[in-house]
Amino acid sequence: MTATLTVRGLCLTRGARAILQGVNLDARAGEVVALMGLSGSGKTTILRVIAGLETPDAGVVTAAKAGMVFQFHYLFEHLSAIDNVTLAPMHVHGVSAAAARARAQGLLDQLGVGHRSGALPRELSGGEAQRVAIARALAVDPPLLLLDEPTASLDPARKNDLGDALRTLAASGRALVMTSHDDDFVREHATRVVVLANGAVVEEGDPREVLANPRHPATRELLQVERARLR
Amino acid sequence: MRRLVACVGLVLLAASAHAQAPAPLRWGGDAEGGAPFVEADPSDPSRVAGFDVEIAEHIAARLGRTPQFIQVAFQSLDQSARRGDFDIGLSGIEDIHARRQSLAASIPYYEFREVLTVREGDRERYRTLADLRGRRVATLGGTMAYDLLLEAARSHGITAVSYDEDVHPYSDLANGRVDAVVLDHVLAERAMRRNPGLVTHAAALAIGHYIVITAPDHTALRDQLDTILRDAMRDGTLERIFRKWNVWNEDQPALFARVLGTAGTLGTAGTNPLGTPGTVRTVGTDSSSGAIQLYLPSLLRAAVITLALSCFAMALAVALGSLIAIGRVYGDRVTRMLLTVYVEVMRGTPVLLQLFVIYYGLAAVIRLPAFIAALVGLGLNYAAYESEIYRSALEAVPRGQMDAARILGFSNFQAVRLIRAPQAFRIALAPMTNDFVALLKDSSLVSVITVVELTKQTQIFATNIGSWLLPGLLCAAMYLMMSLPLGYLARRLEERWRMPGA
Hey, of A49, A74, A79, which one would you mutate to test binding to chain B, going by the most B CBs within 10 A of its CB? Predict the structure, then answer.
């Protein structure tokens, strides 16, 4: 099976600081890839480069059309939940209003926020807003979905719901790449983990193995910091 | 102790000496474009010169007081006299009924003719006001000539155009904005020296007189003025002054003879006993309800002009302001710099100046009708303020939303149109409403370029009935009737569109 996403030798410098120093990354349909690393390791920047929001100094990105869900969801504040979802299908892809609404309502239902379709973003809870943002990204049916810290604003029960939803999305033939601090969530729901340190990949593999027996010092440090934070 | 007493004594002495020196005679006039009446002395601009100046100085000398000039805008002379800003006022002030009723006015000291001035080429075509049906005829607002034109508007179908001073009616006649000017022959003669290519028909459309005004309770001073003026007619002082300023003609000895012949009744009856043939009487002020009935229709028409002007100017300001804001947020460096210069120039200079430049300054290049010039002037000025509001509102929309839009495949233009601008508009709504209310009031400035809007019409009303109370209250009520619903509407929209952080 060919990769939905191939990243080779990605380098990006901001001023004097090298943020990415030769990153390689692949993602295939059905995979949920988790990028882990301490703050400043370059996780979010990788997502932004893949999405086309940043231009790298060197390296190749071969990616299918990507959808992205931001950590601070960035819903369009003047539009209701369902109008946030239908805006791109209608104006970018020329889908009729009726068809766009039907599909949007289906996505919102599937993500468990169908009853909130008429609400404005400021009336939604953090978890609801995030699921609306996922629906918005999925409305144009991207083969690749990028999620920046999707668990950041969720309580444990909601995290499990989200994890199930993500695995369902992957199973339906998409590749998912997310950044996360939460090793429990990654262990439970990701199919592969990629650990970053100082803008480069230092370790990757099955989350259960990598996180149980970290080989690279950066991975061990990451887990320690995470434990300390939870305690 | 003795030293203290001496000191107190000295101070008292000085004070009483000061009190004994006669107070200066404060006399009011308008030096703006006021030759040969009152003008800044060309050889020493801090002093004034003119025949009214010399008459004022003569009066002061006869009263044993020092003349002190007080600059007052021509249109405000009556109000200032009533407030006591000066002791006597003279600046080509016309003898009209309403003025005699509300102020203590002297006997007439000069007789003038209202004359018709036209372009050389129209000399045969436009000989009287009746020839000017459908044409624009200009004059100085708040004068007998203006009332004459209002009368002609009714009887001959001309359009009366009111100016705040007597220079631009003639320059606008020369450049074709108006087709005739009606004003005092003194002003017409001066204007023809300034604008070659104009001719004045000698026939008088009306006869008028200049008088000296004082506060209504200064009847004793007024009687002194009458005595001094009569003496000046008898001993040749007035003739000498008028000859010096080139305004002496055969009408004056006739006036003097009439005034001196009827000396016993002059100045005390409260009306002009000369009957001034051909004079247009201003609207009577016998009852306030009558005055309201007379002036309400014209006030309402003026309010419509104010509202229309404000709405069109705001529409222009919103459209242009949006483009400027988008240019300043999205444009390249040169565009941003040029737009910044535009905004700073428009915000940093008075809108009054901008109106003058657009209407009079550009007249050689493009001759805009007054209403259009007013609309453009206010619109261009307010566009600068609106653009700043929109720019900060655009920048208040989180950048993350623009990233989200880009990933979803929206073009830059779509992202602005569908996402950024609608949110910015909601944020900008409150400050925009403020600006619209401010514009509604600033629109009163356009009277300087001859648009008669609500404030100007109120001023005309007030001048004619000699009181600001009733016209002022009516005018204020009309402005509030326009601005209050607007504020209400804006609050309703804000409630509905409440934005986070707005």
Answer: A74
